[in-house]
Amino acid sequence: MDYLSDGPADAREVFVFAHGAGGAMDSPWMTKFARALGQNGIRVVRFEFPYMAARRTGGKRGAPDRQPVLLDHFRKVVAGLGVPVFIGGRSMGGRMASMVADELHVRGCICLGYPFHPPGQPAKLRTEHLAALRTPTLIVQGERDPFGTRAEVEGYSLSSSIRITWLRDGDHSFKPRVQSGTSEAANLAEGIKVVTDFILR
User: Fold this and answer.
1) What pLDDT, in 10s, does the model give residues 128-151?
2) What is the pTM of this model?
3) Could you count the other beta carbons within 10 Å of the beta carbon of residue 157?
């Protein structure tokens, strides 16, 4: 199994960081976030689900693996590291992490742009397991994320173990509109800070 690792090899805190449905583990967004956490003293381990890894050898852009395959792969990655870890990911990767967090007894879970529902389909919620989640969890979400806006999410019944940090006017990648008065760089910096604080607290 191939990994990308950032940060000190002997760091006390390890974050297993999964990609989203469409972007590989070495996408610019993933790389920027992982390297910043690494510079803050956290060891970040990135990996790819089987369908994404297959794209590197076969060149075929297949759909994401079915949920049982994604969850089982996450279990194998965590087991292979053999140390207490935080787990999480971007969008789909964060959702999968939240579904195995209690089972794996991880130190915490981090979801960057949680896909609460498919864009344009607010009735198709992906929140049932979040109501009973016991693992301390941080969700970092753009206020106007089409997968779950602030107005929508604030009406959901979520576990008290979940804390949400809202990034001003951010979309699914945390990018705000020009007229918002903030910037993508500022939102990313805020996201990196709150994740760092959550892990190192």
Assistant:
1) 999 999 999 999 999 999 999 999
2) 0.96
3) 8
